[in-house]
């Protein structure tokens, strides 16, 4: 029986995630505290791994209430701890010094800052998919692949690419349920440049996107709706959660079923 094996939240968009035992669904369909904050420059543009490789060298960890963030520069002993609310100005000053230009930390507790504003729910992948994709790249472990892809929900008890069952034709949704929460599967996630880089150093893996696309095409199950693949640099599932599910809780071990 498919079950929810892992829940990861990313409290600050583009920084390290935190594994949790449960997560609450917001009225918007986002998960509470997931990508609730984002770092932006003076023009309001996200400071993320797509635009700035220094993001990869910035380690972040959180206390249990996800209110205190500890920042550390990879490969150094420099470490600073901040309360995400009361120390906001000091945190912004530290980040501005690190990046070399002025940044601010913005907050959206309603929707967070999703990459896809249409399919704005949690992203979903299976453990078997992560294991298979990691096997395509010598030197990349399953843990490292997980950190590169940065999905919210991981499913176990299923074969590789099982989550590809959870999207349909353009404009259609596929309904499924995790525990008490109803989801709508929207489309296979289009990946960006971030998975091509080492999550800790930012170093690029040679020909990552080309190799990934070739293997994804070769291993695409024959039952997959291939019309959703205008290219094969797509992996994991983008979702929406209907407003009716607000306040419900996702928990580790929740069973998963298609509706």
Automatic annotation (TrEMBL):
<dbReference type="Pfam" id="PF03476">
    <property type="entry name" value="MOSC_N"/>
</dbReference>
<protein>
    <submittedName>
        <fullName>MOSC domain-containing protein</fullName>
    </submittedName>
</protein>
<dbReference type="InterPro" id="IPR005303">
    <property type="entry name" value="MOCOS_middle"/>
</dbReference>
<dbReference type="Pfam" id="PF03473">
    <property type="entry name" value="MOSC"/>
</dbReference>
<dbReference type="InterPro" id="IPR005302">
    <property type="entry name" value="MoCF_Sase_C"/>
</dbReference>
<feature type="domain" description="MOSC">
    <location>
        <begin position="88"/>
        <end position="259"/>
    </location>
</feature>
């Amino acid at each position: 029986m498919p079950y929810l094996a892992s829940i990861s939240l990313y409290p600050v968009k583009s920084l390290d995630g935190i594994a949790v035992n449960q997560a609450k669904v917001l009225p918007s369909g986002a998960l509470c505290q997931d990508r609730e904050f984002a770092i932006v420059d003076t023009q309001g543009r996200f400071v993320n791994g797509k635009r700035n490789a220094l993001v990869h060298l910035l380690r972040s960890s959180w206390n249990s209430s996800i209110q205190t963030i500890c920042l550390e520069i990879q490969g150094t002993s420099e470490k600073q701890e901040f309360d995400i609310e009361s120390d906001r100005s000091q945190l912004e000053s530290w980040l501005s010094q690190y990046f070399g230009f002025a940044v601010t930390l913005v907050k959206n507790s309603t929707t967070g800052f999703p990459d896809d504003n249409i399919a704005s729910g949690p992203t979903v992948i299976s453990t078997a998919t992560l294991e298979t994709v990691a096997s395509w790249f010598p030197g990349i472990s399953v843990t490292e692949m997980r950190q590169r892809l940065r999905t919210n929900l991981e499913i176990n008890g299923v074969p590789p690419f099982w989550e590809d069952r959870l999207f349909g034709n353009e404009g259609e949704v596929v309904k499924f349920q995790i525990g008490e929460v109803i989801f709508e599967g929207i489309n296979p996630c289009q990946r960006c440049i971030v998975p091509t880089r080492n999550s800790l150093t930012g170093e690029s893996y040679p020909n990552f996107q080309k190799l990934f696309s070739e293997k994804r095409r070769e291993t695409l199950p024959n039952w997959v709706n291939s019309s959703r693949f205008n290219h094969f640099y797509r992996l994991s599932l983008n979702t929406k959660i209907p407003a009716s599910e607000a306040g419900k809780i996702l928990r580790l071990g929740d069973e998963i079923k298609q509706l």
